[in-house]
């Protein structure tokens, strides 16, 4: 069968000049190359559609089978909740540094923090009162008493807390006692008072004494009592160096009336409450004054001082409990008698810690009564994990609700009063098919090993549904508006031929957009972008291959006149046939230039074998009915749209259709676009207003871009109104402190680079964000502690040498420190001759420049690590490789103790720092840049170092985020231009599309500034994806404009008429898909996804249906087909009714038995022959007249 030409989407109604009769012809000026290429592509789409229609059942079965099999891959999906895995840039220096840290240490964190923050219920109230501290003690004490039972064991704080620097004691009894008593590291303002001891749960038993606890322990007195029974000189020196003193019993009591307040407390006798502000001024100490100093910024928030710098008031208190990391807890109890019967593992250790942390938060939040003047905010690392897990969970209710809403909308939108034309079932099937395509795409992602995250589970199902259903509406609209005369068996081919290019263009651009968004090097967003691209690809395959099979099956239902949805029942209209007898025109005049005139004998669409048009002729009437007025004047001439419309105009006839449509049913979006929207939009004044409006919007948006700040904090992610959000808000306001470390790597000689290490520490300490230590405290780094310890034992040696207690041949009469110095001074570092006693008086452990002699740097490191556990723990050095253990025995007589193994060259060490005052992202960026600059300077001196900590893990991305964003958008706009130019074969049109998309991106960015949405990796992905999503709203109008003839205004109108309905339905479907995001418990989802994507959809709708048509009507490219007219031999006398639309006037030469004659012209194109192309000779056709065919023509057609 001959095919109509697939060169372009010719309008079903060709425009006719009002005066001349015409013979359509294509001149040499037409753009033949683009037409030929698109014709070839459309020919392939036509063949594909026809094949799918012929084998629709098989295609549907195989498609559902394939998609269903891929959807099973969801069982292998892995949801990633590890912040480091989600947010650290892939391949970045931070990623490499993190890998180096884990390679050397196994894990970065030495402990986990559990925090209590107390604030007054009345904002701004002073909290430095004994009453407020008493309530804080109540909450902290409740939290410290938490116990959980797991694996048949009871786990309390003393078992799982982090203990800093437990010393090794040779005396077994003392060692066990110290192990039980050694305090947990708890940073609390209560440590300024005796009550801080109540948080320590350790106890020991000695015969003849009550249980020893920190509330009644005086270490000095205990050592005196134990002195006669054990040699504790080394332990005594250790406590003296740590400046333990009387520990807690020498501190004032918050409540001096407490019966357990020790007599040694300064206010025990006076019974006066202490001055809280005065006691907390300068911070507090743990049990060791030297190594456990808690600075004010760690304990107090919202501080105010007098002119002398003395603390006056504060608005918040903070207590921090440190727990062991899972690996530390596993190592601590591995092989212990308490865990030998439970198969102890690191996973079990992690489970114990998480259970304790959850119970800790629960009890701490319930510790104070609701009517208390203070409120407690508790948080732990397990709480953060729980938030991320909750954030990543799929909300089945919202997913089901969103898809049900979409099903209802699709069904209602496609329902028609005419049962045979209704497509409600098609809408239902289309939404279900897209849902299956989304599931199969996600299943494919799981099979490919792409991990899921919160963006995948919370956003992608709804976003993909909205995008996928857009093409469903486009195909369904095109299928119902097939050109008259299309053979039944070619309907699907015709549909794909007309819409396949648009669907391919939008889908390819969406995929390219999401693939370009994967350039953002954040793993969570890269995974989301890749998943979105794959899901869009699966939806494209489903729409182009499987959905046409659904339409083909529905076409069979409609052909069989079955009810929609309930397809087992026949339509009540199917039995009603309106038989119309053929009429003879006789010698009446018919317009010159008519290519074909056809009739049918029934009121249903009939396809002619020799024509691509179908015309219905109504029964005789006694007068002519003028056609309705057309707002577009004589530029548009259209035949009656359908049998239903013509039957609807027939009133007062005996053969009136039984299934006449209601007047409201004849209104649709296409009708609105043609008769109301387009005429109004394309007026000169309206065009000017549209251009001014969008120009103002662009200018305002450019200003809004200056308001966009970088950043994304946990308070943006955690649901508002929750206890977790209250804690994070209080922490951000009062305790914006971050623990960081300056890591030094291997690859250089530490022993010969001490000066460079000291300089690096000095440069880092001078950064604005680094919290300086108190003036009375030495820098808290391992190199300073190591050097100071060497200087201390050197001083002890000098005293012992001067007093004669240590000689060249003996050190036994000297002090412990003097003996250690003796052993170090004789070391040579030479394996052949390791000892040289002559160095005792010629060498110093630390030279005049404050540097340690390189030859025994590593030997001394072994001794320091073994002999000063408290200093080592306070330094947080985390040496790798760890120095070997070596026990000092002052009374060794074999000489073996003189040989000290040297530590291996260091490959990892770190200096700890505290960053403060980091409120905004700009503060973080400034601190990061300063730290990187300090490390770069150290690198020039040969020291390899990098900063480590959460600010560098999660905020370093902002250093290059905007550059990455601009690069991705620019590259994507170029790719979009190339794709559009390739598929539209029109660079002019591609340029206009890219211009509109760039405006949309800028405007969306600016509106984010006005909405207060910060720029992070997530909005960047949406902004990049907005280019691809925006194509959905522009390319259909652009393609309709290109493939229509006439003036620019006419072509813009025809483009709007054809695309207004599917574009609007697509936008509504996208909004319905996003609507479920508005019900999320996470304000982050609502603000960063729902709001941004909703604004994007509305911008796309406005730009696609308002700005682009106006631009096309002014700057649009010329049509691809130029139709030229030339004089015919006869001139038709036409009557132009009111409204300007062409119609047949009441002429005496026309038989009065015809109420209306509908004609149509075929424009023939002449590209090279293509498969499936219809070739129509373009020559001066002889004028058709009734004399040439007579009544036989109509009589023969009446039999069809």
TrEMBL record:
Q: Which domain of life is it from?
A: Eukaryota
| InterPro entries cross-referenced by the UniProt entry | HMGCR/SNAP/NPC1-like_SSD (IPR053958), SSD (IPR000731), TM_rcpt_patched (IPR004766)
Q: Name one GO biological process term.
A: regulation of cell growth
Keyword Calcium in the entry? The reply is no
Swiss-Prot/TrEMBL keywords: Glycoprotein, Membrane, Receptor, Transmembrane, Transmembrane helix
Gene3D superfamilies the record matches: Multidrug efflux transporter AcrB transmembrane domain
Q: Which Pfam families match?
A: Sterol-sensing (PF12349)
Where along the chain is composition biased (Polar residues)? 1186-1200
Locate the transmembrane regions by residue number. Answer: 396-415, 427-452, 458-479, 500-522, 528-553, 965-985, 992-1011, 1017-1042, 1063-1082, 1088-1115
The reply to whether DNA-binding figures as a keyword in the UniProt entry is no
Gene Ontology cellular component list:
plasma membrane
Write down the membrane topology. Answer: Multi-pass membrane protein
Q: Which residues form a coiled coil?
A: none
Identify the main location.
Answer: membrane
Positions of the SSD domain: 395-553
Chain segments carrying region Disordered: 1176-1200
Molecular function GO labels: hedgehog family protein binding; hedgehog receptor activity; smoothened binding
Compartments reported by the entry: Membrane
Similarity comment: family membership? Belongs to the patched family.
Name under which the protein is recorded = Protein patched homolog 2
Species the sequence originates in: Dipodomys ordii (Ord's kangaroo rat)
Q: What is the lineage of its organism?
A: Eukaryota, Metazoa, Chordata, Craniata, Vertebrata
Designated gene of the protein: Ptch2
